[in-house]
Design a protein that fits this description.
Blueprint lengths: L2 H13 L3 E5 L7 H14 L3 E4 L4 H4 E3 L2 E2 L2 H12 L3 E6 L6 H6 L26 H18 L5 E6 L10 H15 L2 H7 L27 H29 L5 E2 L2 E2 L7 H5 L6 E3 L9 H15 L5 E5 L18 H11 L2 E6 L25 H14 L13 E4 L2 H7 L11 H14 L4 E4 L10 E4 L7 H12 L3 E5 L21 H4 L1 E8 L6 E6 L4 E5 L1 E7 L3 E6 L8 E8 L2 E6 L2 E2 L1 H14 L12 E8 L2 E8 L5 E4 L4 E3 L5 E2 L2 E4 L4 E6 L12
Parallel strand pairs: 1-2, 1-11, 2-5, 5-6, 6-7, 8-9, 9-10, 10-11, 12-13, 12-14, 14-15, 15-22
Antiparallel strand pairs: 3-4, 16-19, 17-18, 17-20, 18-23, 20-21, 21-22, 24-25, 25-30, 26-29, 27-28, 27-30
Helix pairs in contact: 6-9, 7-9, 11-15
């Protein structure tokens, strides 16, 4: 067990099981409300709250003048009532007095305008005074609260993400580039600066890629994505290291966001004790739970299978959407169990008490504007009571034989523009392939292009646009050793400098795929599609993307049967060593895609966790001699499910076997008979 896992195990032991609660902002309320809050928290089963996330202006009222009295009082009150504290460093919101003294802390946007005070995340992380003052706050908090009995974990900043193009970022970017490239000639080569005459002759000429009149250098912009993620991570680590000196045994995290592009979470998660997610599916979307599932699997995968933390979710309405629809009854509970099923060990909300003023006043809370005598608070209490009986699930893990590649370098490079389609959306390409495995109840891990693939029998590359030579060798070795690979269009196109790999697409993967394309043919019209014919006599279709594909060693699975590529291969499969590699050079229709992926799963010996109707999700978590099968009905109607040998439902205490009727939005948490941990989650 790693040091991080020991810290998390100790956290859950202190809390008595699953962490349950959310962000608490007592400074927004009169003192007399605090006692009522704590009474209601105990009624709801809350055991952990996050404090001080937005409190810098309350904790440091002017430069060097600190006031921790109110925070001391609320932490003492919470501890006296058996509620732990996840204490945040508040540097997501530099106070007005600091911005007035140092207005250049405000980030400069790509168009040259300045991000004004009055929101949050209004800082350039490269600004030396911002860094100095925020680290001083971390030092003060670490020193003051290290021995406080309420303190259970640390929460650094909040939803890191602001990107600045100002003078401080310029200087930091140049330093980052000098460390990476060493000299200007290497930079000029990597950025292809002879194109459009952009050569640099002195480092002083290099700056952040602010918005140009038209297009800008994609290699330069890719490096700026890398730099901004690295610079924010560097600051996180500096705060973390201060807090670690004072509390070496406590977990330290910051919160990630759903489909967040600015930060490479593979690099970030390696520096945290747990991946921690803020998740806000749009209640208007009937299949929002599928994208949520992808994010849950990604969070679990970021630390190679270690359970993650849900740091924020909503009980009802989320104020960020254009239409502020509230979750229907039962959906908050169902979404919480979905997170648990896919590896979460905490269920936390933003926020405890719904704000009466400010920007997020219409964002729901555990206690809403109408008070505790409401449907939402009753659901909060019911869920809290249920979770008290599920403490033994913490620390258990899921496993999978399917891996999907999700890589921030691919994401950044693919969406920089200057490509055959300006509407390319990396996360939607990943989601389209992920959806099949979700619907089929086949567990999925995510990996990056540097990951060890040896535990997987099927690896999927969705639009893996940028690949290093090392990753290409890794994929080739994986297939040659008997693995099954599926690659979609727009994979292997560029190298790490964002330079096209010559010789035909898909560049780096031509050898393992046994095929190459001489030309990309994105389909132009809305709804435009072409027909496909399969080698077994079937028919299919493709839209959005096609390629003029040739085979070298691959077998043709489907060919175009209409359009300008009529007769050319569209889908191929190549035998390579002891394994196979399938290439989707077109965006095939969902029915044909399902047939292809089912065939690959069958060949790779992969079976579902549970055969169940569409919309019923099953996931297994196991460890410490225990195994839990969680079955969730995402449908708004009852569903009949055969749970086979089943187990004891930890929510009702009933023994369940065979076919059961699962209510709309219903949940089963079945503790199965003890099994060998090594077989858990393999679709046995």
């Amino acid at each position: 067990m790693s040091t991080s896992e020991h810290r998390l195990k100790h956290l859950h032991q202190r809390l008595g099981g699953i962490a349950y609660g959310g962000d608490y902002n007592p400074e927004q309320w009169p003192r007399e409300v605090w006692d009522e809050d704590v009474r209601l928290m105990k009624e709801a089963g809350v055991n952990l709250v996050t404090l001080a996330v937005f409190s810098w202006s309350r904790l440091e009222t002017e430069d060097g003048v600190y006031d921790f009295g109110w925070l001391d009082e609320i932490m003492g009150l919470l501890h006296a009532n058996g509620i732990g504290v996840d204490l945040a460093t508040p540097d997501a919101v530099p106070p007005a007095w600091l911005i007035t003294r140092h207005p250049d802390i405000l980030p400069v946007l790509a168009d040259g305008s300045t991000f004004g005070f009055g929101s949050r995340q209004h800082f350039d992380v490269s600004h030396p005074v911002y860094r100095e003052k925020s680290l001083a706050m971390a030092e003060k908090m670490g020193e003051r609260y290290a021995a406080h009995p309420a303190l259970c974990m640390w929460h650094v900043n909040n939803e890191y993400g602001p990107v600045s193009y100002g003078p401080h970022a310029d200087r930091a970017f140049r330093s980052w580039l000098q460390a990476k490239y060493g000299d200007l000639e290497n930079l000029n080569r990597a950025w292809s600066t002879d194109v459009w005459g952009q050569r640099y002759s002195d480092w002083s000429q290099v700056n952040a890629p602010a918005q140009p009149r038209t297009w800008s250098n994609p290699s330069r912009r890719l490096d700026y994505h890398r730099f901004t993620s690295d610079s924010m991570l560097e600051h996180y680590k500096a705060e973390r290291d201060i807090l670690r000196r004072y509390t070496p045994d406590l977990p330290i995290v910051t919160n990630f966001m759903r489909f967040y592009k600015n930060n490479d979470y593979w690099a970030w998660a390696a520096e945290e004790d747990a991946a921690a997610l803020d998740i806000y599916p749009d209640p208007r979307e009937e299949d929002a739970h599928v994208a949520a599932a992808l994010n849950f699997d990604l969070m679990r995968s970021l630390r190679r299978g270690q359970p993650f933390l849900v740091m924020e979710q909503a009980t009802g309405a989320v104020s960020q959407w254009p239409v502020n629809v509230s979750k229907l009854p039962g959906k908050m509970r169902l979404g919480s169990y979905q997170a648990l099923a896919q590896g979460a060990d905490s269920i936390l909300f933003f926020q405890w008490r719904q704000a009466s003023g400010g920007t997020e006043r219409f964002h729901s809370g555990m206690v809403n504007h109408a008070g505790p005598n409401t449907r939402i608070f009753r659901e909060v209490c019911e869920l809290g009571q249920e979770l008290k009986g599920l403490g033994s699930i913490t620390g258990t893990r899921s496993s999978a034989k399917v891996a999907l590649v999700f890589d921030w370098d691919c994401w950044w490079a693919l969406e920089l523009g200057n490509s055959p389609r300006s509407d390319l959306n990396y996360t939607q390409e990943v989601l389209r392939l992920y959806r099949h495995f979700f619907d089929a109840n086949i567990p999925v891990d995510f990996v990056d292009t540097k990951s060890d693939l040896s535990q997987y029998t099927l690896v999927v590359l969705p639009a893996s646009y940028l690949l290093t030579d090392e990753s290409v060798n890794r994929f080739e070795d994986y297939v040659a050793g008997g693995g099954h690979l599926v690659a979609s269009y727009l994979s292997g196109i560029v190298d790490p400098d964002n330079t096209i790999r010559l010789g035909g697409y898909p560049g780096a993967l031509r050898n393992v795929l046994g095929a190459w394309s001489e030309e990309m043919h994105p389909l132009s019209g809305e709804g435009e599609a072409v027909k496909l014919s399969t080698t077994d006599g079937g028919t299919a279709s493709a839209d959005y993307w096609t390629e003029h594909l040739h085979t070298t060693t691959a077998d043709v699975i489907a060919s175009y049967a209409s359009g300008r590529l009529d007769g050319s291969p569209a889908v191929t499969r190549n035998s390579f060593g002891a394994g196979t590699a399938l290439y989707l050079s077109a965006r095939v229709d969902s029915t044909f895609l399902a047939e292809l992926l089912d065939a690959e799963c069958s060949a790779a010996g992969i079976r579902p966790e549970l055969d169940a109707p569409l919309g019923v999700q099953a996931r297994r978590r196991a460890g410490n001699g225990r195994s839990f099968l969680l079955v969730l009905n995402h449908n708004d109607a009852p569903a009949r499910v055969d749970v086979k040998s089943g187990g004891r439902d930890r929510l009702t205490g009933a023994d369940i076997t065979g076919t059961v009727e699962l209510a709309a939005n219903g949940v089963l948490v079945l503790e199965e008979k003890p099994i060998n941990d090594a077989t858990a989650g393999t679709g046995r």
